[in-house]
Design brief:
The complex is a heterodimer of chains A (about 210) and B (about 260).
Chain A (H helix, E strand, L loop, with lengths): L6 H20 L2 H8 L5 E6 L4 E8 L3 E5 L8 E5 L1 H8 L4 H7 L3 E4 L2 H12 L5 H26 L5 H13 L5 H37 L1
Parallel strand pairs in A: 1-4
Antiparallel strand pairs in A: 1-2, 2-3, 4-5
Chain B lengths: L11 E4 L2 E4 H15 L3 H9 L2 H13 L6 E5 L5 H10 L4 E6 L2 H13 L6 E5 L12 E7 L8 H11 E12 L5 H23 L2 H13 L3 H10 L2 E9 L4 E8 L1
Parallel strand pairs in B: 3-4, 3-6, 4-5, 6-7
Antiparallel strand pairs in B: 1-2, 7-9, 8-9
The chains are: A alpha+beta (about 210), B alpha/beta (about 260).
The structure holds S-adenosylmethionine.
Chain lengths: ~210, ~260
């Protein structure tokens, strides 16, 4: 289950990741075919820190479904910290990384490696789906984080990883209405400033015009 | 287990914060949804900044609905959940979109036809308090943001329990009590001040949205609803808070 985290946040992140992965799959029919061969496979990803459990379920037509909750029996179960998972996701030699990492695996490793191949190849667009559900402020922030992590791959710093865990831990407790309100008030501030500036420009313009006469 | 402030004079009930006769409530509720039906989806997105889609998605995950099953979505309105279920149960399965309000159902049906999900989908106009379906006939019942509008919630829960197959599950997605007092305050401001303004701007109907805000406050909190589900005969009842308890999804199984 979703551990101590707000299911809304976990669902948002998974929904964005799912949309990004499936969009990338549409552009990569070969990978989609490979995945379709595994239709019905359930991969359980148990993250210990932060404490989140995620299921990756391969659907027909080679689409991936990511969910914080499933009652289906997992074919493969992997357990580890976010660091271990990120190291694996971005590894150039996943098999070696798997052997050397602290990840605990129960069951068949094939689906895990197939998913790894997919994720490591992707340049997913996180932004659109996240902004869609979280709004401009939170969505943009989270998309940036995810993008940096995946762009920098191996080189992604400890601090980024920490930021991601913090986002999952902290932002989950922030209420979207509060965040939305905050953004709303900021926008009003910005709008107010613009109106002020516009007014003073108009005034100056008026003075200049008056001066010419 | 019920809150003191949900205690009612016999024969009266809440319409938002106004106390009204039970008979009256139904037509008042109908009036609210008649007047918002066409703008309902837009308002839904604006009100919750799209977050309601995440709440619904998580609810659907909890349903664990499988191909071939029969799902009943009560107070289904414009059919958000029904559309998802229609894909999940497949050709062998069946989804019934039920609502007391014909305007909402019509918007829902049109939208579902547009999205291509019709083969396994039926719409039924009915009251959650007396569901016109046989005993033990449904694998899963959902009611999303609908229970708070129902006059006699206990009666509705009993009716759902009757219709479910043994082992079938009920999921109630509803506004609830924020776990953090600060959040509750922000949320109050939002729902009592911002919502009616948005209702005015988008649907030209601040009163309906004021009613929605008030009905949210009058709805039983997490533990109270859990107790009501147990009283109606459900077992293994549990709930998940979402977005700090602004909404909660309750799950119960028919024994
Ligand atoms: C806030 S809407 C929720 C619609 C949809 N489930 C959603 O989540 O978007 C509430 C719905 O409950 C319906 N409703 C109110 N009282 C009802 C009753 N007694 N029985 C069945 N439906 C009812 C209204 O017509 C309305 O469509």
């Amino acid at each position: 289950m979703s551990g101590s985290h707000d299911p809304t946040v976990v669902t948002a992140v998974l929904m964005a990741a799912e949309a990004a992965i499936n969009r990338a799959l549409e552009l990569d029919p070969a990978s989609a075919r490979d995945l379709a061969d595994m239709a019905g496979t359930v991969l359980a990803i148990e993250c210990l820190s932060p404490d989140v459990e995620v299921f990756a379920i391969v659907e027909a037509e080679g689409k991936l479904h990511l969910t914080p909750y499933s009652e289906r029996k997992a074919d493969t179960r992997v357990r580890g910290t976010l660091n271990d998972f990120l190291a694996l996701a971005t590894a150039e030699d996943p098999a070696a990384t798997l052997i050397n990492s602290d990840l605990e695996i129960v069951g068949n490793t094939a689906p895990l490696l197939a998913l790894q191949t997919l994720v490591s190849k992707m340049q997913p667009d996180w932004e659109a789906p996240l902004v869609n559900v979280l709004g401009d402020v939170g969505g943009h922030q989270l998309a940036n984080l995810l993008r940096q992590i995946f762009r920098w791959g191996q080189k992604s710093t400890q601090s980024l990883r920490r930021q991601l865990s913090e986002f999952i831990l902290e932002e989950g407790r922030l209420s979207p209405p509060a965040a939305e309100l905050d953004a709303f008030f900021k926008e009003i501030d910005v709008l107010g400033l613009r109106v002020d500036r516009l007014e003073s420009r108009l005034k100056r313009l008026g003075q200049r015009l008056a001066g010419r006469r | 287990m019920r809150n003191d402030d949900t205690a009612e004079e016999p024969g009266t009930t809440h319409f938002g914060f106004k106390t009204v006769d039970r008979d009256q409530k139904e037509s008042l509720v109908r009036g609210v949804f008649d007047s918002v039906a066409s703008r309902y989806d837009l308002m839904n997105d604006l009100m919750s900044a799209g977050i309601h889609r995440l709440w619904k998605r998580f609810t659907i995950e909890l349903s664990s609905v499988r191909p071939g099953q029969t799902v009943l979505d009560i107070a289904g309105g414009t059919g958000d959940l029904a559309a998802r279920f229609s894909r999940l149960v497949g050709d062998e399965g069946r989804v019934v979109l039920a609502d007391i309000n014909d305007s909402m159902l019509r918007v829902g049906r049109d939208r579902l036809i547009d999205s291509g999900a019709v083969g396994n989908l039926h719409t039924v106009q009915c009251d959650a308090q007396s569901l016109p379906f046989p005993n033990d006939s449904v694998d899963c019942i959902t009611i999303a943001f609908g229970l708070r509008n129902v006059t006699d919630k206990d009666m509705a829960l009993r009716s759902m329990e009757r219709v479910l197959k043994p082992g079938g599950r009920l999921l109630v997605l509803e506004f609830s009590k924020p776990v953090n007092p600060l959040l509750e305050k922000v949320y109050d401001t939002y729902s009592f001040r911002v919502l009616p303004i948005m209702g005015q701007l988008v649907a030209n109907d601040p009163d309906s949205y004021r009613y929605l805000a008030e009905s949210i406050r009058k709805h039983p909190d997490q533990e109270t609803l859990l107790g009501m589900m147990e009283d109606a005969g459900f077992v293994s009842c549990e709930y998940h808070n979402m977005t700090g308890g602004i909404v909660a999804v309750h799950k119960g199984i028919k024994a």
